């Protein structure tokens, strides 16, 4: 048992005010096809979560296919085409998900050799793949170049010569972007305009390192320099930070165009502004307004291009969480319900579920907050202060630190946590030898296993 | 990419002062058989880490069998026998490790059905197994009772009736302890004597909940109440916190003995004081002095028993990290070495390795600190300020936040991180589809794979 994670005292969000409100479902936090039937049972895409629990066991991730696909389409439309929208596969990747992304016409980001291998195993069109990473190995780069990926995002000087060497060996020219740290870090609604340069990714714009890296790409054999990339933050809710970063990158772009031979300059036309599109984890949050932000961003990029006198580039974006996040929920079975008394006579109810930090590390790692409902029935009684905890042998194994829950929640109930599609399964572990849950897809009243539950045999088979 | 983990600014420990010091090996932080050969290559148990890297690839966990076993023996001797020392398997479990623990005569703690299954698959003697958990399912309890485990540690009132029911179904009597929160929380050298009750584990002593739970166990059919359990903290370095907790538990014990029928009272003889035995992660730390703390603790328990007028109980302890932690190191290959300039003209060197938060989440999760050396050679040059980062697509993927490293560390070097035996492999994930490394055992100049490296096929085979 590692040291207790001292969660910061959470500013009291607008919490559930009544049992009635707890039984309602905040539509903007749950997959679009979520409903509560007249008998009180929650369903997603017409499949009752009670059926899911019975058929596939708990815990289980439930993925609403329509929800996932509709977010792909909405982003593609807002940004002028699927080829502009790169699904960031690190949020959640599987072969099936790669196929959905391909079918919806989107592009794909991979950040490791393993992610690229999954995409290729799913026959994702390599000419729509962009490759990221601060430490790409020769093997990874070779696989990427040989597969014919569209773009590789350069992250260090060392990588320029390594990739040039690889491309020369393979015998082709590889299109590249240069990752720039523009000194803009957005954290939800606020941003700091001169920070975040002290990190492993990219080249600093302010120091001139980014400019020098771009010129090195131009000079490198078999690399074709196509544009600039940046990433400004996570859970961003408006366009301001993206716009500021774009303006800074376009100024650099103008400087490059002055120095580059015309032919080289004409190839430069991609401005990749990264991901970070915010979603609503909690009822009092509103997801980033995709259409509004896209329109604003594209307009401001056009203005800024005009202002610095460069041709307007295409704008690529890299949403991961904004596509996968809200499309999934996790269903757990309630086990122990325990009122913990302390010496100062306070009582807190601990509701234990059959998963925990192994299937969702985000509360412990990022102090992330999640919305909770009961899936098998409408519950009754007054609201009591609860903490939702997992089954791990660690006191920091907390899924929701503090929330009001009606007091008749009891062992055997099904507890659902919303918006677990991003960075939950993908970061899952087997801590305490708890097996990874399955991912079950639902659509039009039917369910299917996308990824099966792991078993003790999977674990034992690793030991020779 | 989730929000950046803002690491607190680390109080500057006594850092490496010179290149010479960096090339030396702090013996108390590394496995006991670690050495640097005349040619500069580090070896563990006579096996050069360069050979390990070549034969098994990187990253890889290297486990010094002698080190692991010698810690088992040392603890068993200090606490009066192996049956008193329960290896906490959550720190790191495999079938082979269970066999080592069994051969050294120790007992075993499991905290989940999966851990119990691994132990049983290794033929660990069930009569030496203690079962923990805040949310044990009926299936888990049934497997435990049917297997004939020694002790089950009761964690809720609900569990008392559930376990009584299970034991009755199986047709046997199950020995149990009651987990008590004595209001003692130890965090390294300091402890707070009235806190830590607001957590999912145990029954509060101060509120009377623990007393009532104990009496409920006595009354429950087919349960045999054998004693009390508590856990005071992690990375504890002296006996004071354990002693205070023991004194509090023994007072409760005396109260119980006054109320219980003599026959019931006579069965009460186990005081389990949990784990938390501190190890040295960094050169300026010293591990808990096992012999000194054990002697002190046993003496104080004897005194306290005498004082409150109860027969002296046996004392069980539950070290996990103190056995597995220092016995393992992780070997990585250095990839990108990059000097990151920022607009305020500071430069920090980022050394990327081919693993990261997937094989060691502890720096990101607990702000844990680790010691780093170069394994393939003695390095030269002045010390420069570095950050050791992994290959994940996340800026918080930091293994060591800030340390001085000689400035000729370069791509291709082997970087070793010490004391990764506990809570690294056991909490490992496949984030970014990076595969779990192998665990390689070394002994007497020979190496062997204990757990093989995962492959992309392992991942893809989960998808139907």
Automatic annotation (TrEMBL), chains A, B:
High-level lineage: Bacteria, Bacillati, Actinomycetota, Actinomycetes, Mycobacteriales
Protein residues bound to pyridoxal 5'-phosphate: 276, 318-321, 423
Catalytic activity field: meso-2,6-diaminopimelate + H(+) = L-lysine + CO2
Catalytic class of the enzyme: lyase
Alphabetically ordered keywords of this record: Amino-acid biosynthesis, Decarboxylase, Lyase, Lysine biosynthesis, Pyridoxal phosphate
Protein name: Diaminopimelate decarboxylase
Modified residues (N6-(pyridoxal phosphate)lysine): 90
NCBIfam families assigned to the protein according to its UniProt record, in alphabetical order: lysA (TIGR01048)
Stretches that traverse the bilayer: none
Function: Specifically catalyzes the decarboxylation of meso-diaminopimelate (meso-DAP) to L-lysine.
Domain Orn/DAP/Arg decarboxylase 2 N-terminal: 66-324
Cofactor(s) needed for function: pyridoxal 5'-phosphate
Species annotation: Corynebacterium anserum
CDD domains (alphabetical): PLPDE_III_DapDC
UniProt pathway annotation: Amino-acid biosynthesis; L-lysine biosynthesis via DAP pathway; L-lysine from DL-2,6-diaminopimelate: step 1/1
């Amino acid at each position: 048992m590692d040291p207790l994670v001292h969660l910061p005292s959470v500013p009291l969000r607008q919490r559930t005010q009544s049992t009635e409100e707890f039984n309602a479902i905040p539509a903007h936090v749950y997959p679009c096809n979520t409903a509560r039937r007249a008998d009180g049972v929650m369903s997603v895409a017409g499949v009752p979560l009670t059926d899911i629990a019975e058929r596939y066991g708990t815990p289980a991730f439930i993925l609403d296919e329509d929800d996932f696909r509709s977010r792909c389409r909405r982003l593609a439309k807002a940004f002028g085409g699927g080829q502009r929208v790169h699904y960031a596969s690190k949020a959640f990747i599987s072969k099936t998900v790669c196929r959905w992304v391909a079918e919806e016409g989107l592009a794909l980001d991979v950040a490791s050799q393993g992610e690229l291998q999954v995409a290729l195993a799913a026959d994702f069109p390599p000419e729509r793949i962009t490759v990221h990473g601060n430490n790409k190995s020769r093997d990874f780069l070779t696989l990427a170049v040989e597969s014919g990926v569209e773009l590789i995002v350069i992250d260090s000087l060392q990588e320029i010569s390594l990739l040039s060497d690889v491309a020369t060996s393979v015998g082709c020219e590889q299109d590249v972007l240069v990752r720039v740290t523009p000194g803009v870090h957005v954290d939800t609604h606020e941003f700091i305009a001169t920070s975040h340069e002290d990190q492993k990714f990219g080249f600093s714009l302010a120091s001139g390192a980014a400019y020098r890296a771009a010129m090195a790409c131009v000079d490198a054999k078999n690399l074709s320099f196509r544009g600039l990339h940046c990433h400004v933050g996570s859970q961003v809710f408006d366009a301001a930070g993206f716009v500021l970063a774009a303006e800074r990158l376009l100024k650099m772009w103008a400087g490059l165009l002055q120095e580059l031979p015309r032919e080289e300059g004409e190839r430069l036309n991609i401005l990749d502004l990264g991901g970070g599109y915010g979603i609503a984890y909690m009822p009092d949050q509103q997801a980033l307004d995709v259409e509004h932000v896209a329109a604003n961003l594209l307009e401001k990029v056009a203005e800024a291009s005009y202002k610095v006198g460069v041709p307007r580039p295409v704008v690529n974006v890299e949403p991961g969480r904004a596509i996968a996040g809200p499309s999934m929920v996790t269903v757990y079975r309630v086990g122990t319900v325990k009122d913990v008394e302390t010496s100062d006579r306070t009582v807190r109810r601990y509701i234990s579920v059959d998963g925990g930090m192994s299937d969702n590390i985000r509360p412990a790692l990022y102090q992330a907050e999640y919305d909770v409902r009961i899936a098998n029935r409408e519950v009754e009684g007054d609201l009591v202060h609860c903490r939702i905890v997992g089954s791990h042998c660690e006191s920091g194994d907390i899924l929701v630190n503090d929330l009001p829950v009606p007091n008749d929640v009891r062992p055997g109930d099904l507890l659902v946590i919303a918006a677990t599609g991003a960075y939950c399964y993908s970061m899952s572990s087997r801590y305490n030898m708890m097996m990874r849950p399955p991912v079950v897809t639902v659509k039009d009243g039917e369910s299917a296993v996308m990824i099966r539950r792991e078993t003790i045999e999977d674990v034992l088979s690793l030991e020779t």
